[in-house]
Amino acid sequence: MAVLDISPVRYENDKLLILDQTRLPGEEVYEEMNAKEDIWDAIYKLKVRGAPAIGVAAAYGLYVSVRNYEGTVEGFSSLLKDSRDYLCSARPTAVNLEWALNRMYGKYKTLLDDAKRRNVEFAVEEAKDALLNEAKKIEAEDIEACLSMGEFGLQLLKPEMGILTHCNAGTIATAKYGTCLAPIHLGQERGYNFKVFADETRPLLQGARLTSWELQKAGVDVTLICDNMASLVMRNGWIDAVVVGCDRMAANGDGANKIGTSGVAVLAKEYGIPFYMFVPTSTIDLDTPTGEEITIELRNGDEIREMWYEKPMAPEGVKTYNPAFDVTPAEYITAVVTEKGIVYPPYNENLLNIMKGK
Ligand code: MRU
Description:
The protein is α/β, with parallel strands linked by helices. The chain is built from eleven helices and 14 strands. The chain has helices spanning 36-44, 51-66, 73-88, 95-118, 124-155, 182-189, 206-217, 230-235, 261-270, 302-305, 347-355; strands spanning 9-12, 15-19, 30-33, 162-165, 195-199, 221-225, 241-244, 248-250, 255-258, 275-278, 284-285, 325-328, 335-338, 341-343. Strands 6-5-4-7-10-13-14 form a seven-stranded mixed β-sheet, sandwiched between helices. Strands 11-8-9-12 form a four-stranded mixed β-sheet, covered by helices on one side. The two termini are 35 Å apart. The site of 5-S-methyl-1-O-phosphono-5-thio-D-ribulose has 18 residues, from helix 2 and strand 9.
């Protein structure tokens, strides 16, 4: 399937390439990332976006940030740490960013500590190779996780269902296949004939620009609606399930996702429609007890006032409030789909079990 050949992050011939998602659906353009500033900017400006894809981009990005270093081990260690902290500051909500960067840094520290313990010389060049391999592993594991979430997700869905989704948690938001769109892609291959409704997802239009592009390209029956139409399509009886992604799930099952997700969850509960959140274990943050502690990114008000319009659609200088995410309380989430299985309430207990492999 052509759309599934598109990876948002590619590392080929020693080049880190990022699909510039701000130019979709009009143009499919890859940009080469040569320095940590390029990667920070690409994440901040949402050229690469979606929690798992941000993690993969950051992992390769950390390697690219340090790969040309020549000098002492101490110098390399401090460059790696500074680059990790710098990249981590690009966006605060999606936990995959810090998760991937800490995993890369942890890999390095293990190698360094191991060399010290064994009293052998530590080679910076070998450490660079290990970092690149770790980034490749993060990417490969994400592809596997998405495929697995696709299979588990499909167990919750039946052929011909009407499905509502918000934002884009598809193939371009991950290494490949997507989280909540993975079962839709799999279902498409298996003749499920889903009818998908994509919320446009104001203000950055991930639903209009990305989800409807991705699903249309895959041949899925997709209908684009404005965010404020979700209640109507539910009331019309057109929606049998809601599927969404997640940027950070707290230990109690509260899940942060694109702004507007919590409203969809409240509506789904009112209309008796199951609401499924797709959350790879890399997005589960057991160190954050509840959604209250999740930092919500605030973005520039111009995204509301004038972006996408030919001329500003709000009075100049009007105050804005532009949170990029909201938290859906655990009580609104019917089930959490992870790559290790489907998790049901009580989430406090069952998320911990799945993370421990129980
Ligand atoms: O601001 P974005 O476009 O990065 O927000 C993306 C989302 O909210 C996704 O639903 C989430 O990251 C899950 S992606 C598999």
